[in-house]
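Propose amino acids for all 86 sites.
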């Protein structure tokens, strides 16, 4: 009976390590793809910034939103579009 518990614990450990390794690889591959795409296929930030203020917001509101996004994302995030919720 004790041998069954020992085998069960070994299988549990191997299974958990396998899941951890697969999830680690998924995160690693995902981050690698993101870095590759951002390095070799950068988007046009100037074009995106021109289209932001079509929502009819005041410039002070727009500046506050842009500053907040920049602060929260550490300067890496950009606003593509602002729409009013319906």
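Proposal:
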């Amino acid at each position: 009976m004790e041998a069954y518990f020992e085998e069960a614990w070994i299988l549990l450990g191997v299974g958990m390590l396998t899941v951890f390794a697969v999830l680690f690889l998924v995160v690693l591959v995902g981050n690698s793809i993101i870095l590759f795409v951002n390095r070799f296929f950068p988007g046009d930030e100037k074009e995106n910034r021109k289209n932001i203020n079509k929502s009819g917001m005041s410039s002070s509101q727009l500046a506050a939103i842009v500053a907040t996004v920049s602060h929260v994302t550490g300067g890496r995030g950009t606003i593509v579009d602002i729409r009013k919720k319906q």
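The helical segments are 2-40, 45-50, 59-72. Residues 2-40 form the longest helix (39 residues).
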